[in-house]
Amino acid sequence: MTATRPSRPTSPSRDPEGGERERHFSRLAQERPGIALCRATALVARTIDEELSGHRLTVAQHLVLKMLNDVGPCSQQELSEQLRIDRSVMVGRIDGLEDSGLVRRERHPRDRRAYAVTLTPEAGPAPAEAEGGVPRLLDRDFGSLTAAERRTLTRLVGKVLDGN
Q1: Which of 2, 64, 124, 151 has the greatest count of CB atoms below 10 A from its CB?
Q2: What is the DSSP secondary structure assignment for residue 142, as one 8-state letter?
Q3: How high is the pLDDT of residue 12?
């Protein structure tokens, strides 16, 4: 009598549709909130990138413009800390915005050793135009959630971020 080997599930690398891989990550996302947040972040980032591509902005650049528009001139360090973007990455984002003529660096009014990043007149409607697509992308990514669920998600993610 010959022993038969138990059948093994198809290896994710051999599964042409990636179904097993997708199920694996779905299970992980249900078990681990960090993985769920990473997956959700990737989904939202893709959607935002698509939305902003018409504005020739990256997500980070959009956030910088929005913050400058909402609160006024800020140091690179403050932008980096508030937007939780690594300082070395922030320098590149601001360089890109400066090259596009949307921001400029000037001496910080309260600290002559530092520079403040400021919107230029050329930025004009760019922050508002980029922000105009946000409701559409929120509906696209979070359309399966009720308004109350969206508020709860926002509150819970905010609580995680405030703790770090």
Answers
A1: 64
A2: H
A3: 46
